[in-house]
Amino acid sequence: MIDAECISETLEALTDDATSRRYAKEHSTLRGIRGVPTGEIARLGDAVWAESGTELPRDRQALQQLYGAAWEDGLVAIGLLATCVPDTPAEALAVGEAWLHRIDDLVSADALGWLVIGGAALATQSPLPVLEPDAHLMASRALASAAMAWIPCPIEGPSAAPLRAKLGTRQIQWTDRTHPEWLAPHCTALLRDRHPCIQKALRRVVKAWATASPEEVTLWASNVPGGIPKVLRADIQRIVKKAARAKRT
User: Fold this and answer.
1) pTM over the 0.70 mark
2) I want to staple 96 with a disulfide (CB 3.0 to 4.6 A). Which of 14, 116, 235, 238 is the partner?
3) What is the per-residue pLDDT for 134?
């Protein structure tokens, strides 16, 4: 069973003054930032999973407590929740959706979207939650980043460490193929949100999709009503050309 208080105490002990000052400039969250290097966050998440594992519903309350503590605690909580996706995806998705409304920073939003919501939605074949028109930005960013789970690319970030430990591999991804039936409508919908934060997530998704399947992205881009932004089209063209050159060599 997970001990949230013990994890938080360990993170506090790992605090580094230089890291704390740097992270205070780079990240902003109401939960506060301890100043723990991301490498230490990853190692702790790995160690916690190896010692106690993670199960739902057994650990739901402890995960909630951990997620509501400092920024680093939340990243560990997201990583531990992600280890529940392979075994209990519906339960993990429910917890992840509940956390959407409490998230307030980019790193956590991307991790929650890619590691939990996107992976669990794919596993359960469940549509992503529909946010209210006035939903806060980071919840929308998490849902935008969820699409990374539908592309065969390695999961990044310190929150991925517990899942790597569970699966026993250094490189993990949620799927071995692209899912255009999910990606195309998702990316088309994201085009309507012009906020730079959402558009940055969209570019990341589209570039990963183009790298994995240039033909699918080209087909999608050519069928978007009204076309796609120039910067996004340039990203696709560059990656498609690179893929074509690789095939010729």
Assistant:
1) yes
2) 116
3) 61
